[in-house]
Amino acid sequence: MVTSPILITPSLLSADLGKLQEEVRSVEPYADWIQADVMDGHFVPNLTFGGHQCLRWVKTRLPLDIHLMVTNPAERIAEF
Fold this sequence. Notes:
By secondary structure, this protein is of the alpha+beta class. 20% of the residues lie in helices and 15% in strands.
């Protein structure tokens, strides 16, 4: 059995959006990726980052893990 390494991927949902960049910087030394949960209010009842425009503001050396919880993910992939 092959085991995968554990990755630490803090979610932007837990950040204070008023201090988003500061929050990202505070977890970078401990994280492998940064997760962005994109919700459209249809596929799931919650609404978060509506689109890629919000995520453009995030400056990080880490990869962004975009979690699309939207009704039409295939139509939204190119956006991200």
